Amino acid sequence: MGLNRRDFLKAAAGGGLALASNLSPAPVLARATVTRLPDALGILYDATLCIGCKACMAACKKFNNLPPDLCTPNSLWDDPVDLSAKTVNIVKLYKNGTGLAKDQEINGYSFVRRFCMHCVDPSCVSACPVSALTKDPKTGVVHYNKDNCIGCRYCQVACPYLIPKFQWDQAFPQIVKCQLCDHRIAQGSYSACCEFCPTGASIFGNVQDLRKEARRRLSLKPGTFAEYPLQRVDSHHKVSRQVTPYLNHVYGETEGGGAQVLMLANVPFNKLGLPQLPPTSQASHAETLYHTLYKGMIVPYVVLGGLFYIIYKNTTGHELP
Amino acid sequence: MTEFDRSASNRTVSKSALAAAQARSQHEWRPVGGNLITKPFLVLAALAIIGIILMLYRYAAGLGAVTNLSDGYPWGIWITYDVLVGTALGCGGYATAILVYAFNRWEYHPVVRSAVLTSVFGYSLAGLAIFLDIGRYWNGYKLFLPWTVNFNSVLVEVALCIAAYVVVLWIELLPTILEKYPENKKAALWLHRLERWLPVIAAVGILLPTMHQSSLGTLMIIAGYKLSPIWQTGLLPFFFLISAITMGFAVTVFESVLSSMAFKRPFETPMLGRISVGMAWLIVVYLVVRFADLLFRGAPVFTSGFQSVMFILETLLFLVPVLLLVSPGLRQDLRFLFLAAISMLLAGSLYRFNAFLIGYNPGANWSYFPSPGEIFITLGIIAIELMAYLYFVKRFPVLPTEHA
Ligand code: SF4
Ligand code: SF4
Ligand code: SF4
Q1: What is the pTM of this model?
Q2: CA nearest B152 in A: which residue?
Q3: A122 lines ligand 1 (CB under 6 A)
Q4: Closest by Cα among B341, B339, B337, B317 to B329
Q5: Atom 6 in ligand 1: which residue has the minimum CA distance?
Q6: Which of residues 99-128 of A touch B (CB under 8 A)?
Q7: Any chain B CB within 8 A of the CB of A241?
Q8: CB pairs under 8 A between A and B
Q9: Is A289 in CB contact (< 8 Å) with chain B?
Q10: Do residues B115 and B95 touch, judged by C-beta distance below 8 A?
Q11: Are A83 and A162 in contact (CB under 8 A)?
Q12: In B, which residues are within 8 Å of A5 by CB distance?
């Protein structure tokens, strides 16, 4: 049995090389962040227009058949304190100091809507082992299919916005998340939250148009009057309103590889509870590493062959026949 | 019948090989014997029953009723302890197989069997824990359908690889079961066949844990900023793999010492000493890479509050076995070998808890500490594991024959 360590190391080197390539700044099989779909649909939320009426929350519950979420003792009506398996869209309040001035970071307040961002390169879709979460190839809507879901909750670990929620109180639970009302889109309609928003704070549309609209708003001069479309970005229904200042940042344009939901505000987004994310997606980081190790299963097969050769020699004392 | 009987000459060769194999195995391993129903066994049985009742309750009432899991902390100790730590503790079979089959160190062959046995139960029960943890278990088969599986998901690699390895481990355990029936012709025939397939089985049995133990680390990459930079790194798979192998060696030493004490058998000190030194060298490699990576990325090692404390504790636990095993004198002393093994097991376990729970922070509004239900189900699973181990060791040829 003249064996050996040397042979083993030789065979292991194949696997070692692949592993080592991860250490280098440019991995061999880098998977780039996915780019935007041309016909993607999304929502533009403008916190400076939002009055916190929660009409969008009520509409969301109604058109998605979600139950009331009673969160305070003796509560008489739906009063969710955060997103949950019963609430996939919520309007939250940021408040600082006296909390008097609207859309001011100091001594002011701001509303912020939270719901699925419909990421361009979604972590949840990359993570889900059984394709229960998928991104529509045309609209880009991230959809959940309970018939595939095994309830592993890896999507919850993966999502940078903590969007997928699990029915912890059910013996036969599901994941629940905003699906941009894709059942309504399929019938030629659009997201309920936007239909019922009275101020134009939430508007629905093609993401390219929404980006243009967001850029237009950032270029407006505060104090002047401007027109804001209601419900949909291409709507003829508009309201005229005095422009208030914006932070020069369209949240969701690049965050985590970009999202189909875009946000405008005048209070820094991290203060509103939105994470600061790099322009590359978490999915691309994970898949780059993973594909480097497992592309075509070549490395595993090479290692297996090497192992077999060595072990055959070691156990029988012969070379391969 | 089979190719086994195809020619007369072949048969004689096979028969003598078979006899030799049996003689060798009887020489190497023997059942411990003795009473199965002892006091410790009954305590374990009680824990197992409590665990099983709670498991039934979990299926009737949902995960929220027995666990403290939440949308912020979707994974708790069932994943971190039962699956991550459980399978790493089950790496004894893997680590000793690397030594024996890949590095041709047959002097360690006597410990392979008991190592494989702990691996079988460690992995099988991790599989059970996964089944408890997934909410829609009735859809579990979708993981095996090529048209539903998402091959970009790291979790797929982990799940399929662990499932395959459980099968391989049971095949590796088969000789132990078959040898209990030396009179049975069929058993002898299968024993012989297994022996012929050994190189394939051993090779697959080394490849699979290499794949999934590293992928368990890769799982957390997609958690991004939620995992503290002290643990979030592209090297997660490397650290998980190396620490799994060192835990495999540690558990082999730990188990050998404990079973020698429990069954009043002589200690295998010199052999355990050599295994421990190999382990210490691997830990050194691990620590060098770990610190180089932390320095390179400038991770906030000392300024992360409780996470920093746990990081320092984790590092100290890794250092203890290295410090204990550098001195040749201490290496001959069973007590220090045992201590080094325990410290390594704690280090690897804490590293896993840190990388999946303690270093994981989904936001200020969330917190997690395991519920009594989660803890008792985990204890129940451990109890089942230990009972199965005791049963096998006493009834089947698992532990090395005494040399005294
Ligand atoms: S926000 Fe979360 S749930 Fe929504 S698409 Fe992105 S990763 Fe998926
Ligand atoms: S919980 Fe369901 S949707 Fe989420 S990752 Fe697991 S299988 Fe996919
Ligand atoms: S309906 Fe419109 S204005 Fe009212 S809370 Fe929702 S986004 Fe704000």
Answers
A1: 0.89
A2: A126
A3: yes
A4: B337
A5: A119
A6: 123, 125-128
A7: no
A8: 193
A9: yes
A10: yes
A11: yes
A12: 103-104
Instruction: Tell me the three state secondary structure of residue A166.
Output: strand
Instruction: Say if CB A274 and CB A262 are below 8 A apart.
Output: no
Domain boundaries, chain B: 22-400
Give Cα separations from B321 to A116, B57, B111, B220 (angstroms).
Answer: 47, 42, 21, 27
B203-236: pLDDT as tens digits: 889 999 999 999 999 999 999 999 999 999 999 9
> Which option is the CATH number for B22-400: 1.10.10.10, 1.20.1050.10, 3.40.190.10, 1.20.1630.10?
1.20.1630.10
- Are the beta carbons of A194 and A231 closer than 8 angstroms? yes
Q: Find all residues with CB under 8 Å of A296, minimum gap 6, and list them.
A: none
Q: Is A178 on the interface with B (CB under 8 A)?
A: no
The torsion angles phi and psi of A24, rounded to 5 degrees, stand at: -70, 150
Residue B332 sits at φ, ψ, to 5 deg, of -85, -10
Provide the CA A49 distance to its chain's centre, in angstroms. 23
Residue A173 CB–ligand 2 contact under 6 Å? no
Q: State the angle between helix axes of B154-178 and B109-133 in degrees (0 to 180), rounded to the nearest 10.
A: 130
Q: Do A311 and B199 touch (CB under 8 A)?
A: yes
Q: How far is the CA of A251 from the centre of ligand 1 (A)?
A: 15
- Give, in order, the Cα–Cα distances in Å from B7 to each of A169, B4, B188, B194: 65, 8, 18, 19
First to last CA, chain A: 15
* E strand intervals along B15-147: 29-30
Neighbour count for residue B56 (Cβ, 10 Å): 10
Binary contact (B155, A294; C-beta < 8 A)? no
When CB atoms are compared, the residue of B103, B226, B363 closest to A5 is B103
Rounded distance, CA B83 to CA B356, Å? 11
Domains of chain A: 5-31+295-314 (no CATH), 41-280 (3.30.70.20)
Which chain A residue shows the shortest CA-CA distance from B200? A308
Residues of B in contact with A119 (CB under 8 A): none
Residue A84: phi and psi, rounded to 5, are -160, -175
Is the ipTM beyond the 0.95 threshold? no
Q: Inspect the interface and report whether the beta carbons of B203 and A82 lie closer than 8 Å.
A: no
Separation in Å, CA B302 to CA A67, B26, B294: 46, 55, 11
Token duo for residue A258: 């970009």
**What is chain A's pLDDT, residue by residue, as a tens digit (321 residues)?**
333 444 544 444 444 444 443 433 334 456 778 888 999 999 999 999 999 999 999 999 999 999 999 988 888 889 999 999 999 999 999 999 999 999 999 999 999 999 999 999 999 999 999 999 999 999 999 999 999 999 999 999 999 999 999 999 999 999 999 999 999 999 999 999 999 999 999 999 999 999 999 999 999 999 999 999 999 999 999 999 999 999 999 999 999 999 999 999 999 999 999 999 999 999 888 888 877 777 666 777 777 887 887 877 777 776 665
Contact (Cβ atoms closer than 8 angstroms) between residue B131 and residue B166: no
Contacts of B385 (CB under 8 A, 6+ apart): B121, B122, B125
